[in-house]
Design goal:
Layout lengths: L49 E4 L12 E4 L5 E3 L4 E7 L18 E6 L4 E11 L6 E2 L4 E5 L9 E8 L2 E3 L1 H6 L24 E2 L1 H12 L9 E2 L1 H13 L13 H4 L10 H11 L13 H14 L9 H7 L1
Antiparallel strand pairs: 1-2, 2-9, 3-8, 4-5, 4-7, 5-6, 6-8, 6-9, 9-10, 11-12
Helix pairs in contact: 2-5
Length: 319
């Protein structure tokens, strides 16, 4: 079993996105009020997908958020740094019981940010955070689902300013973010998709990692039929949907932690990924002192914990 960086809570591997003064919002029934948080910084797209319903449209004048649709299990990311002040995980599709906030249903996460903002993430399949946990912009917090009063997998995303919902699409657009499309802040949680026909260094990284898992793929950077077949074999072995696309669901299973002394295809994958950011390493599969130094330089430049250890948080930022 691979060691993994702690990407949640107040672990030593947490990425701090900035500093700012937090303001506690008015308490809501069943929802904790956080202590003023020191985490603030750039806002982020919370999920990839297609907008299927907007904020308070003529057909849905009471709809307090924007819906982003994608497949079940699609990663959901924190839209800004803050503190988780509410989590619900006991819902199911078709559940009409009252949710985390009045008028909402389904599994959900509520995060308190600086300057009186809160964000709400609804209809989740599952949550990967707990109440009281400190999170950063772009950190994975949940998986998309269709729990509660929902007709299909999507994220119901809300931004609340001092307790009042505001248009989340416009709010993010004013900060240079297209809801559903922009890569998350810092690359955190922003796993790319690699599929048939792609030519890239990320495809080369995937090929090395597939080989490391025992599904041989020529590391030529072209993700053709042979690589797709290897990807499908890997996905079947991991109990995933075997579609041959390496996306947000497959990446966490594919990555292998790399540290000083690591050898083989996983080390080659890390070296290729570091070279994408100008490391200039020889891709020899020996993750020695030179590779560790390159990893530390990359982590320092990205504001990560500088330990030379390529775990999930570093991998997400690398690719």
């Amino acid at each position: 079993m691979n060691r993994h960086e702690n990407t949640g809570g107040i672990g030593r591997r947490r990425l701090l996105i900035g500093l700012g003064a937090g303001l506690a919002a008015t308490a809501l029934p069943g929802v904790a009020t956080a202590e003023p948080t020191l985490l603030a910084g750039a806002w982020s797209n919370p999920a990839y997908g297609t907008i299927t319903s907007g904020f308070r449209t003529p057909s849905r004048p009471t709809h307090s958020g924007t819906d982003v649709a994608n497949s079940q299990g699609t990663a959901i990311w924190a839209a800004n740094g803050g503190t988780v002040v509410g989590v619900r995980t006991n819902s199911y599709p078709g559940d009409t019981r009252p949710g985390l906030l009045p008028g909402r249903t389904g599994n959900a996460v509520l995060i308190e940010h600086h300057n009186g903002y809160r964000t709400y993430y609804g209809h989740l399949y599952s949550a990967s955070v707990v109440r009281g946990q400190v999170v950063t912009a772009g950190q994975t917090i949940a998986k998309m689902g269709t729990t509660g009063n929902s007709t299909g997998p999507h994220l119901h995303f809300e931004v609340l300013a001092n307790g009042s919902p505001i248009n989340p699409y416009t709010f993010l657009a004013n900060r240079g973010i297209t809801l559903g499309r922009t890569r998350p802040a810092g690359g955190g949680g922003g796993w790319p998709s690699v599929e048939n026909g792609e030519r890239s260094e990320v495809a080369r990284v995937v090929q090395h990692l597939l080989t490391a898992h025992g599904h041989s793929a020529v590391a030529d950077g072209y993700f053709g039929s042979a690589s797709v077949a290897a990807a499908k074999a890997f996905q079947r072995a991991e109990g995933l949907v075997a579609d041959g696309v390496i996306g947000p669901v497959s990446w966490p299973h594919l990555i292998i932690d790399v540290k000083q002394g690591s050898r083989g295809s996983s080390a080659k994958a890390a070296q290729v990924a570091l070279n994408r950011h100008g490391a200039g390493l020889v891709v020899d599969g020996d993750f020695g002192s030179v590779s560790v130094r390159a990893a530390r330089n990359f982590q320092s430049a990205k504001g990560l914990v500088v330990d030379g250890y390529v775990g999930p948080l570093t991998w997400r930022t690398l690719v």
